[in-house]
Amino acid sequence: MSAGERKRAQRQRDSQAVIAATGDESNASLRVLLAILARVEASESARLSAEHAWAEIGRRYGFVSVTEQACVERTPSRNKE
Question: Residue 26 carries which DSSP code?
Fold first, then answer.
């Protein structure tokens, strides 16, 4: 197998790993999580997957605090002048 064929096969395996890890970021390898981050601008689902990948990387290495954001409606205040 030539070097080009080996590289092509590696890219194909990496692509399949990214597809398989979408939605299951907690079990993905760091290499796959980084590949997911690289696809952030591909689509809305890729953006959401990248957010999950970033949260998982942060959870593993302890530098990202993941919290759920509460939905707060903007209501007029009666005390506001």
Answer: G
pLDDT, tens digit, 9 for 90 and up, residues 12-53: 988 888 888 877 888 888 988 998 888 888 788 889 989 999
- Conformational region of residue 23, where left means phi above 0, alpha means psi within -120 to 50, and beta covers everything else: left
Q: Which residues, 6 or more positions from 32, have their beta carbon under 8 angstroms from its beta carbon?
A: 14, 17, 18, 21
- Could you tell me the two tokens for 34? 């980084």
Which residue is associated with the tokens 């999580």?
33
Phi/psi of residue 15, nearest 5 degrees: -65, -40
C-alpha 17/C-alpha 63 separation (Å) is: 25
27: left (phi over 0), alpha (psi -120 to 50) or beta: alpha
Q: Is the pLDDT of residue 81 over 60?
A: no
